[in-house]
TrEMBL record:
Segment forming the signal sequence: none
Protein name, entry field: Deoxyribodipyrimidine photo-lyase
Keywords: Chromophore, FAD, Flavoprotein, Lyase
Superkingdom, taxonomy of origin: Bacteria
Source species of the chain: Gluconacetobacter entanii
Family of this protein: Belongs to the DNA photolyase family.
E.C. number: 4.1.99.3
């Protein structure tokens, strides 16, 4: 045989033209700007669309109850969207590291594709699966779809990860505009599922993602409808009708001044690139908002990427303090105070309004998230990990990188953190950002009859009025709590 001739190949190395491509959906539950799906369709092969519910994966933690509820609706919406373009969503349940290679082999697939994830457990799982299927002679490819900039692409001049957001953002902007989003495929040529998949593919109902006894999700259903179509509606409505004034109004929980896109980004109903380009196009097309509002909004997208890059560089931040001197912090363990915080019964109206909004809708305004987190970690001197766990269970947008990095930022133990001695005063914050008390009156309705002059300090109201209001007294004195936190902080080595 001449040396220039190609070597002989085995059947596994040259799959037949009808061998399918498997698209493994994860946190990218959409058709548009889905590079893995677009690649599969462009291959010309029939496509199998797969979702594997791996309860053990969720960053080595159980997926929170609110996020499970959202995932149920998200999968149903994706299933309907795929049907409209001729495809079928196959839903399996089990350990992805074991199950995915089995499903690939059973399908006789030529290739499996997915969009990358960056959390520690996800990266480890994906690396193992890619190695396993490639060893079996099946191609495996992954794509960037969930961030504007992958975590290893924005680095300091010495190649290190950034530790300060402003520097990271400056470097990211210097890299230019993100790539334009891909269109949704008009048609997805579906492959018939192999018979062996019938045992593994159980369907969405069998996942049992929604609460039953009791069904506590009524408020979530009233507030949200998961899926790509509704996400695009939210995005379009915000950039055309809500972006103007965003820079000044975004801190006002009493106003509809934020995008509310966080759960859509978390589950991938829209991509950051879609959000970026639609916002830029609206502003530069003269649709109301100015460059200042646009810049502030884009920087919030950037912060999301920054959180991903931090966790990618230091996976231990999932549960460990970035500032290790906080390992010696004398956190309090008080079940009664924690329960009062969780239930919105602290006696501080803005804190309680936020916690009740969270429980009822699975979401909380960003400014209020900072207020309630500061109150827990500083005035109550409780470990940020306790608050992070509660948010993880109750937020529909619970994202491991953002949740962990934001909690550490507020607690003062994280990267680029607010100094520990910067303690949010919930009364002053409420008076500044909810000046008429509209937010408090909505979520703490028992305080609605109070005059605005004391809506944020009900203990100062006229006693005759106060007696008619069934609302708890403050569980901690603000000055005393602040002093206790500062004393604990000053006692840390190196603080």
């Amino acid at each position: 045989m001449p040396r220039s001739s190609p070597p002989p190949t085995s059947p596994a190395e040259t799959p037949c033209a009808t061998a399918p491509v498997i698209v493994w959906f994860r946190d990218d539950l959409r058709l548009a700007d889905n590079p893995a799906l677009s690649h599969a369709v462009a291959s010309g092969r029939p496509v199998l669309c797969l979702f594997v519910h791996d309860p053990g994966h969720a960053f080595a933690r159980a997926l929170g109850g609110a996020a499970q509820w959202w995932l149920d609706g998200a999968l149903r919406a994706l299933r309907a969207d795929l049907v409209r373009v001729g495809a079928v969503l196959h839903v399996a349940r089990g350990d992805a590291a074991t199950l995915v290679p089995q499903l690939v082999a059973q399908a006789g697939a030529a290739e499996i594709v997915w969009n990358r994830r960056y959390d520690p457990v996800g990266r480890e799982t994906d690396t193992a699966i890619k190695a396993a299927v490639k060893e079996a002679g099946v191609a495996a490819h992954s794509f960037a779809a969930g961030v504007l900039h992958e975590p290893w692409t924005v680095r300091t001049r010495t190649g290190d990860a950034f530790r300060v957001y402003t520097a990271w953002w400056r470097a990211a902007r210097a890299m230019g505009e993100p790539l334009p989003p891909l269109p949704a495929p008009a048609q997805v040529p579906a492959a018939p599922p192999p018979a062996a998949w019938a045992e593994q593919c159980v369907g969405i109902d069998a996942l049992g993602l929604c609460p039953v006894a009791p069904d506590w999700a009524g408020g979530l259903r009233a507030a949200w409808q998961p899926g790509e179509a509704r996400a695009r509606e939210r995005l379009h409505g915000f950039v055309h009708d809500g972006l103007a004034g965003y820079g000044d109004a975004r801190d006002r929980p009493d106003l509809p001044a934020t995008s509310r896109l966080s759960p859509d980004l978390r589950f991938g109903h829209v991509s950051p690139r879609q959000v970026w380009h639609e916002a830029v196009a609206a502003v530069r097309g003269g649709d109301g908002a100015g460059e200042q509002d646009l810049g502030k909004f884009l920087s919030e997208l950037g912060w999301r990427d920054f959180a991903v890059s931090l966790l990618y560089a230091q996976p231990e931040l999932v549960s460990g303090n970035f500032r290790t001197e906080f390992d010696a912090m004398p956190w309090r363990d008080d079940a009664d105070d924690l329960r009062a915080w969780q239930q919105g019964r602290t006696g501080y109206p803005i804190v309680d309004a936020g916690m009740r909004q969270l429980w009822h809708t699975g979401w909380m305004h960003n400014r209020v998230r900072m207020i309630v987190a500061s109150f827990l970690t500083k005035h109550l001197l409780m470990d940020w990990r306790v608050g992070e766990a509660w948010f993880r269970d109750t937020l529909v947008d619970a994202d491991i990188a953002s949740n962990v990095i934001n909690w550490q930022w507020v607690a003062g133990c994280g990267v680029d953190a607010a100094p520990y001695f910067r303690v949010f005063n919930p009364v002053l914050q409420a008076q500044k950002f909810d000046p008429d008390g509209a937010y408090v009156r909505k979520w703490v309705p028992e305080l609605a009859p109070l005059p605005t002059s004391c809506i944020h300090t009900p203990w100062t109201c006229d006693p005759a009025i106060r007696r008619r209001v069934a609302y708890p007294s403050p569980i901690v004195d603000l000055q005393g709590g602040r002093a206790r936190a500062l004393a604990a902080w000053k006692g840390l080595s190196g603080a």
